[in-house]
Automatic annotation (TrEMBL):
Record's keyword annotation contains Oxidoreductase: yes
Family: Belongs to the short-chain dehydrogenases/reductases (SDR) family.
InterPro entries: NAD(P)-bd_dom_sf, SDR_DHRS6-like, SDR_fam
Protein name, as recorded: SDR family oxidoreductase
Keywords of this entry: Oxidoreductase
Species annotation: Mucilaginibacter dorajii
Length: 247
């Protein structure tokens, strides 16, 4: 009886689908879930990244190339996949940070395609297949609560995601819907920045953050594992930022 009581809080034997799972936070979460005994399925738009990521995951892990800007591609994937337990969405292309006066509006619109609309579409077509006790975990960022100059698009996307989480938690109940809100995390997300700017950003984080270091993908992955395993929190945006919003 004791083991049965603990079973709902385990990822052992659960099927976890990670969109954006071939690199960065998504891959770190796939590894962490697999270590807990989950069967992981990683999704990306890039087959080469999927193949590379699968070499870092346990045997039996699966990976599929899916165009996350295409509604039909997302729908067809989930219709083919069938039932599973947890959806994790961390996908997003590198953002370009610009002051509003220098922002290309058409380019700015495209940043919502994968980060917001891709997540929205994935939830639409994945939610009917989520097993009882399962969950949806999205991604936001501290740019919503603590933006800097040039962060208007990033802040807008993060704010939109956090509002979406609360609305979906109400609409899709009893499926749990939450998000993780990372601060600056040292991943390939920042590769579009010139190297000197990127290193300057990381150095500034080390100097000012309460924990005196830049976050790693593995730090954030632990929050996703928690959100999948816990059974009584929904509509929450969990901050993992080294103290970003406090300084």
């Amino acid at each position: 009886m004791k083991n049965q009581a603990k079973a709902p809080y385990s990822l052992n034997g659960k099927k976890v689908v990670l969109l954006g799972g071939s690199s960065g936070i998504g891959l770190a979460t796939a590894k962490a879930a697999a270590e807990e005994g989950a069967q992981v399925v990683i999704i990306s738009g890039n087959q080469q990244r999927i193949d590379n990521a699968l070499t870092e995951l346990p045997e039996g892990s699966q990976g599929y190339a899916v165009n996350l800007t295409s509604e039909n591609s997302i729908k067809n994937f989930f219709d083919t996949l069938g039932g599973f337990d947890h959806l994790v969405y961390t996908a997003g292309e590198n953002l370009t940070l610009n002051l509003i006066a220098q922002t290309d509006i058409e380019q700015a619109r495209t940043f919502f395609n994968v980060r917001y609309w891709g997540a929205f579409t994935a939830v639409k077509y994945a939610s009917p297949y989520i097993q009882p006790g399962g969950s949806i975990c999205l991604i936001s960022g501290t740019a919503d609560a603590r933006p800097g100059a040039g962060w208007s698009i990033a802040s807008s996307i993060c704010g939109a995601m956090e509002g979406l989480v609360r609305a979906l938690a109400v609409e899709l109940a009893p499926i749990r819907v939450n998000s993780v809100v990372p601060g600056v995390i040292q991943t390939a997300l920042w590769d579009s920045m010139p190297e000197t700017d990127r290193e300057g950003l990381f150095k500034a984080m080390e100097d000012t953050l309460l924990l005196k270091r830049v976050g790693q993908a593995e730090d954030v992955a632990l929050a996703y594992v928690y959100l999948m395993k816990q059974q009584f929190g929904t509509g929450q945006n969990i901050t993992v930022d080294g103290g970003t919003v406090l300084v």
